[in-house]
Amino acid sequence: MTLRRRLAVLAAALLAAPLITVIVSASPASAHGWVTSPPSRQDQCATGVVANCGQIQYEPQSVEAPKGSRLCSGGSSYTVLDQDDKGWRVTNINSSTTFSWRNTAMHRTLNWQYYVDGNLHQTFTNGNTQPPQVVNHNVTGLPSGRHKILAVWNIYDTAMAFYACVDVNVGSGGGTTTPPPPTGNCPAAWSASAVYTGGMTVSHKSRKYTARWWTQGEEPGTTGEWGVWQDNGAC
């Protein structure tokens, strides 16, 4: 390549760099989350309760699709979540039960909707604000018997929503355990069965930790200085 040709290629690359930067920075922020309690289908995949789920076992927070779907997958590529005969664990709950979302990226929220067997049952709003890392909804008046509950997180300023299906049996003898609420400056307590992704925070033995990457079952405070959990001090 001649010197003149090399200089021309270099000049073209330098001119294109600002344009690439503008395009990348214009990408919309992503919001991610899924229902952890009662355990949703993607949560059961992530925790190993149900096997052979494909890629969703590594990213239960990513069931994102355009608003308006009534599918467990939302119409995304995670179609395994739509298979009612997959062997999903059915959770016994009461007619009034707390549903917990764990969010890995917080985005302004239009509302959360809960559908029972395809019919809208209850809606929660958030004033178009950003939600915390853990969101709890007390869903009431659930009909007795076996049902599939579709939980939908509708994002405020995009056309997208996040979807999670929960298989339940509603009766007087059941109940679910919800994550303990944050205390003081501490985030929600670490759970050995929960799945955490990079950036999520937990509290454990009165200390705050931040996950550096995807993890499950690794106790904070035991992974060392270069392990998955970054110690943020007492809380």
Automatic annotation (TrEMBL):
Ranges annotated as spanning the membrane: none
**Domain of life of the organism in this record?**
Bacteria
Query: CDD domains given for it?
Result: ChiC_BD, LPMO_AA10
Q: What SMART domains does the record point to?
A: ChtBD3
**Domain Chitin-binding type-3, residue spans:** 187-232
Transport found in the keyword field: no
- The reply to whether Glycoprotein figures as a keyword in the UniProt entry is no
In alphabetical order, the GO MF annotations are: carbohydrate binding; hydrolase activity, hydrolyzing O-glycosyl compounds; monooxygenase activity
InterPro entries from the xrefs?
Answer: CBM5/12, CBM_sf_5/12, Cellulose/chitin-bd_N, GlcNAc_Chitin_IntDeg, Ig_E-set
Protein name, UniProt field? Lytic polysaccharide monooxygenase
